[in-house]
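Q: Got a minute? One more chain.
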Amino acid sequence: MSTYKIVIDRSLCSGFGTCAELAPEIFEVGGDGIAEARVGTSDDPAVLEAAAQCPMAAIAVYDLATGEQAA
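A: Always. Here it is, folded:
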């Protein structure tokens, strides 16, 4: 199982909240209306789906073992 590093580009996020709906234990929309990662890393594959479904492509996910972008 891979462990993923989660990076949110706050300048791209428009606060749609899709990530928080798909992976609420990992993402939340903060008081400023911008998505935040509750954790910096996760082995939950839901982070990949959340990144893929972000309408603004504001979420990048990297495989910690390889350093390559996974989503």
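A: The radius of gyration is 11 Å.
Q: Perfect, thanks.
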